Amino acid sequence: MAKRFMLSLSFCLLVLFQGSLARRQYQQQNECQLKRINAVEPDNRVECEAGIIESWDPSNHQQFRCAGVAVVRRLMQPNGLLLPSYSNSPQLIYIVRGTGMTGMLLPGCPETFQESQQSEGQGSSRFQDQHQKIRRFREGDILAIPAGVSHWCYNDGKEPVVTVSLFDISNSDNQLDNNPRNFYLAGNPEEVFQQTQEQRERQPPLYRRGQQSSCNNIFCGMDTRFIAEAFNVDEQVARRLQGENDNRGNIVKVKGGLQVVRPPTRLQEERAESEERDRERQRRANGIEETICTMRIKENIGDPSRADIFTPEAGRISTINSHNLPVLRSIQLSAERGVLYKDALVLPHWNLNAHSIMYVIRGRARCQVVDQNGDTVFDGEVREGQVLTVPQNFAVVKRAERERFEWISFKTNDNAMAAPLAGRTSAIRAMPVEVLANAFRISIEDARRIKFGQQETTLGSSKSQPGRAAA
Fold it and tell me: Where is the signal peptide, in residue numbers (predicted)?
């Protein structure tokens, strides 16, 4: 009987994390017929007791509906706790600034973090608290959260934590609709994404925000008697679970700091993660306990030594995909972290199999995006705090003209691929010289210059700038 139960549990967990192969199921037929793309600021702002949440609402921007995504930026003050919640879609979280801890609550997995205290006069230990694994995060980390899996975050540092999150609402793991939804397990949080007039009209008056009692988590709609019976508590405590008269918002202040069983130090954690990556390379993916309860959900791509592409005069790019973070294979997302020095450019290219949603971390750059008709759908400056969507197959080029430029791009494929238009590995370089000469109506000599003129692969610079390698 026990074996049958474990087999059933293993099967359920396996199904939970088997994502689709990048089908954008909610993408509307004409949403990607874009005549104009804009670099946009957040649409909505929610102020909380211990932080601020800002969102880019897909209902307000065709470019987000084309990509099937939504974007959220959070600022958590020191001792700020983001209330536990889950979403109808998988998400990637990038840590722009700060340090802290997070817990991802996986159904059916054991509580491996345990606190024990030696009882006086006894030789046995008694457990004070036990919970699932806590993971530390720092600037440059990417966190992967599957759809429907609840998580929380806490800022235990001395500086604010800033994160930017991409919600992939077109992922087939989301079987509700193409609206981003957060389901909170506690408190009285405010809706991060603004509801459209049509959505508000469809909602029964009793449950419209502002007309309901002060309660907005998933326990609110349950009878307090059921809650009391489920948790074996009295009804007064059950009403507390419903966030009764709680006006702190989505991010709450923890007085005196959060007392939990702490994870190891950063050095120990990085060593353990390195050993885990080595084990993953040596074994075949064949089990539940190896890939679900103990799986890695984060990878740092902000460290300069982590760069996959580096040009001393131009900058660097780090990528994360399902090859170096296997959980991304399930949620069908990946990311790119880039740094571009002054007067350098990312050579023109297109994304073969993914939309790219770029958030500007620091600085500014000139960017151009071109569609299949050769029309420029974006030609302008992108600056810190803005988001720009580059649809699949649209050509893009960006250049840092006056200052250093840093960005994070979320990709809607776990193994996103880019095809350069110029450079040593480009489509132009791969063509015979005579094909180029006839295609562009130029001389053979000019065709050779076009083909072999750029020796870089991804990043280029108009002039050499010594000393950049140490930046």
Answer: 1-22
Q: Kind of pairing, strands 315-320 and 309-311?
A: antiparallel
Q: pLDDT at position 29, please?
A: 56
Cα 144–Cα 170–Cα 334 angle in degrees, nearest 5:
35
> Which single residue is written with the structure tokens 């921007």?
61
- Token digits of residue 413: 């494929």
Give me the average pLDDT of each 10-residue run along the chain (471 residues): 46 43 49 91 94 94 95 97 95 97 84 58 57 87 95 95 96 90 91 64 42 70 90 88 86 89 57 56 45 82 94 95 93 97 95 97 97 95 97 96 95 96 92 94 94 91 50 40
For the chain, what is the radius of gyration of the CA atoms?
Answer: 25
What pLDDT score was predicted for residue 239? 86
CA dist 39 and 130 (Å) reads 45
Q: Is 333 helix (H, G, I), strand (E, B) or coil?
A: coil
| Structural contact between residues 379 and 365, judged by C-beta atoms closer than 8 angstroms | no
Dihedral, CA of residue 272, residue 276, residue 278 and residue 279, to nearest 10: 140
Q: What are phi and psi of 367, to 5 degrees?
A: -135, 145
Write down the number of H helices and E strands in the chain. Answer: 9, 27
With the CA atoms of 55, 58, 62 and 63 taken in that order, what torsion angle do they form, in degrees rounded to the nearest 10?
Answer: 60
pLDDT computed for residue 331 by the predictor: 94
Look at residues 156, 157, 161 and name the one whose alpha carbon lies nearest to residue 140.
Answer: 161
Positive or negative: CA dihedral 413, 416, 418, 419: negative
Decide: 431 and 451 in contact? Cβ < 8 Å.
yes
The DSSP bridge pattern shows strands 298-300 and 251-253 to be: unpaired
Give the Cα separation of 279 and 273 in Å (integer).
Answer: 10
Q: What are φ and ψ of residue 297, in 5° steps?
A: -120, 0
CA distance 104 to 132: 8
**Is 145:82 a contact under the CB 8 Å cutoff?**
no
CA–CA gap between residue 77 and residue 418 (Å, rounded): 37
Place of tokens 């987000």: 64
For residue 338, list its beta bridge partners. 317, 407
pLDDT for res 267: 52
* Strand 161-167 with 70-76, pairing: antiparallel
Give the 3-state secondary structure of residue 218.
coil
Q: Is residue 102 helix, strand or coil?
A: strand
